[in-house]
Write a structure and sequence with these properties.
There is one protein chain. The chain is of the alpha+beta class. The chain has a single domain, classed as Jann2411-like fold, CATH 1.10.3300.10. It contains seven helices and six strands; from the N terminus they run H-E-E-H-H-H-H-E-E-H-E-E-H. The strands form three sheets. It has a two-stranded antiparallel ribbon with strand order 1-2. A two-stranded antiparallel sheet has the order 3-4. Strand 3 and strand 4 form a beta hairpin. It is globular. The chain starts with 11 loop residues before the first helix and ends with a helix.
């Protein structure tokens, strides 16, 4: 899938990679879910997702539910608080003060060493820093990307296909909209 200028800053990249364990590859345009395979192979897990290993309490069905809630939140940040609050109620987090370059800031960490706790702490920290609203999913291919634009209004993973096998979801959407408008205009002119 696209990778050009879509990585999230810092630890938020772990969340983006987790969300993208479900994808619609450009080559096949068929939904794929890598999470079950990675969860059953600790080396693949470490290579693909995280330095944070799975805890025995991290059941696959729970991770799938969490990923779905995060995907829904990234798709619609205006209506994400209820689903995320439900997860924050389930997984206890602890607050601590982190000092970086003489600037103190409040950070959250999981009380248990579960992967879902790790991910939710990263999400909570991204919400607190204002970065969470820039983690989005493409309206076409559903790929999670970090919006690096100045105004934060990016809607598609890319406007250029980024390689010979890539898709330009934004360009495809704009061409489709243009063709619909042209067809509607031609229909009205024929009436």
């Amino acid at each position: 899938m696209p990778a050009h200028n879509q990585t999230a800053p810092g630890e938020l990249e772990d969340v983006r990679r987790f969300v993208n364990s479900w994808s619609i590859p450009n080559q096949t345009r068929i939904e794929t879910d890598q999470l079950p395979q990675w969860a059953s192979d600790s080396q693949a897990w470490a290579r693909e997702l995280s330095r944070c290993p799975l805890h025995p309490e991290d059941q696959l069905d729970t991770l799938l539910e969490l990923r779905l809630a995060l995907r829904e939140s990234c798709a619609n940040h205006d209506h994400d608080s209820e689903a995320l609050n439900t997860w924050f109620d389930k997984v206890p987090l602890s607050a601590f003060i982190e000092s970086i370059e003489s600037v103190a800031r409040l950070r959250l960490k999981p009380l248990q060493s579960t992967y879902r706790g790790h991910i939710l702490a990263l999400v909570a920290n991204a919400i607190a820093s204002g970065e969470w609203s820039r983690l989005k999913t493409c309206g076409d291919c559903q790929w999670a990307f970090y919006d690096h634009t100045r105004n934060g209004n990016k809607r598609w993973c890319g406007m250029s296909k980024g390689g010979p096998d890539g898709r330009a979801c934004g360009t495809i959407a704009k061409v489709t909209a243009f063709r619909l408008r042209a067809a509607d205009k031609a229909r009205k002119a024929a009436e």
